[in-house]
Amino acid sequence: MIQVRIPATSANIGSGFDSLGLALNLYNYIYMEQIDGIEIKSRDHTQVPTGENNLIYKTAKHLFEICGKPFTGLHIEQENNIPMTRGLGSSSACIVGGLFGANTLMGNPLSREELVNFAAVMEGHPDNSTPAILGGLVTAVIDDGKVYCVKQEITEKLRFFTFIPDFEMSTEMARAALPKVIDHRDGVFNLSRAALMSVSLYSGNFQNLKIAAQDKLHQPYRLGLIQDGDKVFDLAYELGAYAAYISGAGSTLMAIVDEAQADTFEKEARAALDRMGHASWELKKLMIDNLGTQVSV
Ligand code: HSE
């Protein structure tokens, strides 16, 4: 069976709504081979759909059809380490895994660039799927089905602390909370900060990240849906984080921290979460993944 390793992602990075994202060193693994029929199972405790509605299967089958290749069925095994529906790119990982698995089984008829386009169209926005494929920090625009993007490798000296609540938040619900129309001033507020975020993360000007992560397009509407979200932001800054933001559509909250402060941050953040009554929230210390999706045959 071929193996596809897909990184978790953290989209938006505060101000870069639907346009900035980065890949993290937490991975889902997908094992795939062509068979007659359908056989899908999980290699861990997670429950996965085992029929035609499995997102990896659906995506892979779709790509076979688009490429005009005969499709008999698939045997898929999944190892899911990316928590589901928490704003860390679990559905992107399924789409990207399905695309790379199918492309490899067909003998690689499509380039990585074409897969970037397919993934973004299927996902609806490019800020999770593109970093999942390319790794690093990605600035991406989708226009007429084509992704225009730049991937930048960023330092491994940053730590990305994920505060993962014990409740799910679907992208659909998180998007429904947003206004249809925004004030011109809010547009300017965000676009200046998104540009600052992209270039500051890449160039190491981390003193800019707190301002760059500020946002008026989605976080003010979503933070209230995450219990104690505002308290976690305050906590992250009190403990010296460069930036705090809602990862993707939530519910995970992210803090970017210097590696020199990571041990203290971890100990104190854990203790504070427990004091807030959130012992069940998971605190993970992650790093950038600069490689993106990897396939082994
Ligand atoms: N940019 C998207 C959102 C990320 O915030 O809704 C979710 O995939």
UniProtKB/TrEMBL annotation:
GO molecular function: ATP binding; homoserine kinase activity
Alphabetical UniProt keywords: Amino-acid biosynthesis, ATP-binding, Cytoplasm, Kinase, Nucleotide-binding, Threonine biosynthesis, Transferase
Pathway terms, separated by semicolons: Amino-acid biosynthesis; L-threonine biosynthesis; L-threonine from L-aspartate: step 4/5
EC number(s) recorded for this UniProt protein: 2.7.1.39
Catalytic activity line of the entry: L-homoserine + ATP = O-phospho-L-homoserine + ADP + H(+)
Statement: the UniProt record of this protein carries the keyword NADP: no
Residues covered by the GHMP kinase N-terminal domain: 54-136
Pfam families, sorted: GHMP_kinases_C, GHMP_kinases_N
GO biological process: threonine biosynthetic process
Superkingdom in the source lineage: Bacteria
Domain GHMP kinase C-terminal: 201-272
InterPro entries attached to this UniProt entry: GHMP_kinase_C_dom, GHMP_kinase_C_sf, GHMP_kinase_N_dom, GHMP_knse_ATP-bd_CS, Homoserine_kinase, Ribosomal_Su5_D2-typ_SF, Ribsml_uS5_D2-typ_fold_subgr
Places the protein is found: Cytoplasm
Residues annotated for ATP binding in this entry: 83-93
Family membership: Belongs to the GHMP kinase family. Homoserine kinase subfamily.
Function of the protein: Catalyzes the ATP-dependent phosphorylation of L-homoserine to L-homoserine phosphate.
Protein name: Homoserine kinase
